[in-house]
Amino acid sequence: MKTTFVLAASAFFLAAPAIAQEHGDAEHKEDKFVMIDADADGSLTLAEVQEVDETVTEADFSKYDADDSESLSKMEFANWAADMEGSAEASAGE
Ligand SMILES: [Ca+2]
Ligand SMILES: [Ca+2]
What we know:
Elements: H1 2-14, H2 16-23, H3 25-36, H4 46-52, H5 58-64, H6 74-92
Bound molecules: calcium ion (2 copies).
One calcium ion binds near residues 65, 67 and 76.
């Protein structure tokens, strides 16, 4: 059960680039942000991110939390999503 959830969560990040390229990046990143933002306060906490991907560590999170607010703004999340897409493309090329 738990394993299935983790795989689904990874697919959630990895599946995004192909869709984003067809329909426009910003729009889909925004969709994803809204989906992760469980309490809809406009920022993502570590707990909210771990709800969709429990492999995310505090170190991962703070790396993208540019202003150390312990939450990710849309801009900070967009940077993270861009890096995720980059690493997905890199591993697909192997
Ligand atoms: Ca939130
Ligand atoms: Ca922040």
